[in-house]
Design goal:
By secondary structure, the protein is α/β, with parallel strands linked by helices. It has two domains: about 5-150 and about 230-255 and about 265-275, Vaccinia Virus protein VP39 (Rossmann fold, 3-Layer(aba) Sandwich), CATH 3.40.50; about 155-230, no CATH class. About 40% of the residues lie in helices and about 20% in strands. The protein has twelve helices and ten strands.
Length: about 280
């Protein structure tokens, strides 16, 4: 949660945030379809939400799931409960680290997350997938949205030339690609990293001060974000997934990603347990 604001203010800020930070309506439909297909034949299916994402909880209610949320942050829990209103009272909230969950193994039909893997350092990806696999019933599913690169990343200076004027015209659509073009050797991405790379380009004359100012102003919210995430190329990510799950299906919001030469895309995966 940002510093020096109340839980109520944070909830209101989150309410106004759009894609790609929160899911689009098309992405909600994809999640809903996967939830339906995964446990639509089961009476009173049980679902874990990794986090307290309101959209996932609401979709769980809509499709008849008994929802349990797992999140370490009390401030996030409180803020998202404000957004959920009375609907939030239906859910079981377990405050704990995902790696230390006390939930019963092998009891859940579906586990869902939104950007879950991207929040973690790569060294923890296998560990989380193993935990999710253990929480699921043998025929259970893990449904999650993950930002992945769809090809080799290129330096930011080259990426800006490829994007051209479209970058400023469609800033939300190009956020994912900016992240991927500036990922570190440790595959870390973030607004602060993009800002540093832009400053280097300005200082070495690759872009003008005017170009720097235009990009910085257009992406001010992104560049001001302190948190970092982690991204892999799609083929490498799927190699990790296949250790624990069968990739039953995947999809993405084709309207949101309908831009020329995107470098990274938010894919929603429906993963069948292999245990």
């Amino acid at each position: 949660m940002p510093d020096n604001i109340s839980t109520e203010e944070f909830a209101e800020q989150w309410r106004t945030i759009g894609a790609p930070y929160r899911m689009t309506n098309n992405q909600k439909q994809i999640y809903g379809r996967f939830m339906r297909e995964s446990a639509g034949h089961i009476d009173n299916p049980k679902m874990i939400v990794l986090g307290v994402t309101p959209e996932l909880r609401e979709l769980g209610h809509k499709h008849g799931y008994r929802v349990t949320c797992v999140d370490f942050s009390q401030t996030w829990i409180n803020a998202m409960d404000i957004l959920m209103g009375e609907e939030g009272g239906k859910d079981i909230i377990v405050r704990c680290n995902w790696f230390e969950t006390p939930l019963q193994r092998g009891e859940y039909d579906v586990v869902v997350g939104d950007g879950t893997m991207n929040l973690l350092e790569l060294k923890n990806w296998d560990r989380l997938l193993e935990i999710v696999q253990g929480l699921l019933k043998p025929a259970g599913y893990f449904i999650t949205r993950t930002l992945v690169g769809i090809g080799d990343s290129v330096p930011l200076g080259d990426a800006l030339k490829i994007f051209g004027e479209r970058l400023l015209k469609y800033p939300e659509e190009y956020v994912n690609s900016l992240w991927y073009a500036t990922k570190t050797p440790q595959n870390a991405v973030g607004g602060g990293i993009i800002k540093e790379e832009l400053e280097k380009l300005r200082d070495n004359g690759s872009i003008t001060s005017d170009e720097f100012d235009k990009i910085s102003n257009r992406f001010s919210k992104l560049l001001g974000m302190k948190s970092e995430g982690y991204v892999l190329e799609q083929k490498h990510y799927e190699e990790i997934l296949r250790k624990y799950f069968q990739i039953k299906d995947w999809d993405y919001d084709k309207a949101f990603h309908n831009i020329e030469k995107p470098m990274a895309i938010d894919y929603i995966y429906c993963l069948a347990n292999k245990s």
